[in-house]
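Render this sequence as a predicted structure.
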Amino acid sequence: MNFSISNPVYALYECRLKDRILSGDRVEHVAIIQDGNRRYAKERGLSKALGHSLGAATSEMVLDWCLEIGVKHITLYAFSTENFQRDEEEKRYLFDLIKNKFIELNNSKRIHANHVRIRAIGRVEMLPQDLQEEVRRTEEATRSYDNMYLNVALAYGGQRELLDAAQALARAVKAGSIRAEDVNEELIARHLYPQNGISVPKVDLIIRTGGDARTSNFLPWQANGNECAAYFCAPYWPEFRKIDFLRAIRVAQTRASSQQA
């Protein structure tokens, strides 16, 4: 059966899924590895730039879906430390695309009406200066919001995050502001990204598109320590549908229910 958007069976299934989700326990934190933009474009004879633009449009839709079902935190893997190895033309396009998206978020009535706080997590100082400035403007404009958090992982690497936290704790111990024996899970979490505010909480669900069944150094402390649910699916990120998202949420809810039983 072809579940196209206009198919009434698809619409009914989507509606029932959403009702089940809303009647179940809330999934607080969804982290997404947005994989497949370049492969999607290549298979269709499109430019890599257009693939990334289509992927960015999917990210905007996912934000709406999260608002619909009450997700508190969504973390998007937008640019990893490994992505710096890509060619200069592609990186420049990505940086410009991300910068423009931050400008749009800053000017978005939807963001301000829903009190969505925007934050970048990662080694932001490695990014071009113009992008850093737009990130900071958007963070500052939404700093007082707490209805929902949109965390954008930029220049992010999970091992680097743990290393940065360890170094920050070591400096604090050396300075005498904390004792080594006081270091615990809660204190470590407070030194993860971002280190100047409410830390990113434990992940309930990781979604990865594009067919790969791996988490690629993404939020290792917040996800692995929590034994969160994982949902790997074949669609490339630009073709990720609401029905895929809702199925992933139900996987997380079902897993949480089985753990409580």
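Summary. The first helix runs from residue 8 to 23. The chain has ten helices and six strands.
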